[in-house]
Amino acid sequence: MAEGSELAFFDLRLVHDHFDRALVQDDDVDLKAYLDAYNELYKFFQLMGSVFSFVSSDLKQKIQILTELTNKDSQNYKSIKTMIEYEKENKLMEKTDHTNGTRTLLRLHRGLDFIKEFLRQLGDLSDSDKTSSCCQDAYDKTLAKHHSWVIKKAAIVAMYTMPTREVLFKKVCGADVQRNVDVLPKMLEITGDVFNRTHNLYELHQLHNLP
Fold it and tell me: Please, which residues bridge with residue 28 across strands?
């Protein structure tokens, strides 16, 4: 993995554009565009370092699993809807020892819930405000529901070290802080649309509690 100094900075415009491309017809989500957006979001966690290990630890692996599925079978893994229907029809979700896309994407979906809530609250802070409290609030409302006590405890301790909003944005966005702040509202709107579509598809097929 590249060191932070060698890693390109985080770009909210790219997240916006990829998620916008993911919003295909019939309330479906294009899987490749979704993963492209998530790869950019993952960059945010890399740039933040170990403080976000509670959410980023296995994101890269899950992105990679889904990318391999889309590359290997572009027809059945073209969208979230086609993936779910294909894996249900072939009873792939019943195999707990089998890595399937639907279960893997559910972990990314839960992570996205945290990311969009954290970024939403960041947008409401002033430059001098600490980011730890809004991060903890976002975590409590989202990912914490799916984590063990041990992970929750470690996450809360890590959050105490988080900087002010100004320092955080400079760390992940470099010189383009204002450009990213300006696009944040539109990016959050598009991300919310993608999240809701994904959520509805999992609800429709009763898949939110996959083991």
Answer: 24
Cα dihedral 115/118/123/124 (nearest 10): 160
3-state class (DSSP) for residue 29: strand
Nearest CA-CA partner of 73 in 83, 62, 64: 83
Backbone angles phi, psi at 99, to 5 degrees: -80, 110
Distance (Å, rounded) from C-alpha 177 to C-alpha 170? 6
Q: CA 83 to CA 92: how far, in whole Å?
A: 11
Tens digits of residue pLDDT in 111-170:
999 999 999 999 999 999 999 999 999 999 998 998 889 988 988 888 988 999 999 999
The confidence band for 1, taking pLDDT boundaries of 50, 70 and 90, is very low
- Across the strands, what pairs with 29? 23
pTM: 0.91
Beta-bridge partners for 30: 79
For 184, the token pair is 């944040």
Q: Return the H-helix or E-strand segment holding 24.
A: strand 23-24
